[in-house]
TrEMBL record:
It comes from the Bacteria. Residues 15-135 form the Mycothiol-dependent maleylpyruvate isomerase metal-binding domain. SUPFAM superfamilies: DinB/YfiT-like putative metalloenzymes. This is TIGR03086 family protein. It comes from Pseudonocardia acidicola. InterPro entries: CHP03086, DinB/YfiT-like, Maleyloyr_isom, MDMPI_metal-binding.
Amino acid sequence: MRVTVDENDIVELYRRASAEFGKRVHAVEGRWDAPTPCADWDVHTLVNHLVNEERWTPPLFAGARIEEVGDRFDGDLLGHDPVATWEQAAKEALEAIQAPGALSRTVHLSFGDHPGREYATQLAADHLIHAWDLARAVGADERLDPDAVDALLPWFGPMEDLYRQMGVIGPRRTVPEGAAPQDRLLAMFGRQP
């Protein structure tokens, strides 16, 4: 069963998740080579990954196909001011998602065509989980927006096995009975809370 929410809720979910990640980017303070919970990724690589996603968002929501975007966002995108680069990329991605009709459009992804609302939810989930990864890496506050967590839990439940089959998340971690929603979501994404 796939959970759907109102388009305004999806935009707000994405905005909150992006803000959570951005808050942790501002907390890096020179620890760009610190290890993260993501295997083989340091802080620089993790932030670059999210900037890459942000850069892809405007053309994909505008209808571009993967082959049209090509390799223009490959490599190190952070430049000499990673925080400013993040801020600009995040602003442009949010504008693309907020554009009239964006969530109703078909987005052409590497794994098929999907409604914009679904892609925006996927992006929100990635931003939120990686906000925790980044917080863990730099010793920042690991508490995530509880409303965003609550919105993503029912959406991700039916998606979890597919994500694991695609190899984009690790094995589910065990959490105690009655664990907090954030801990349950992190465990579903293969993180040890």
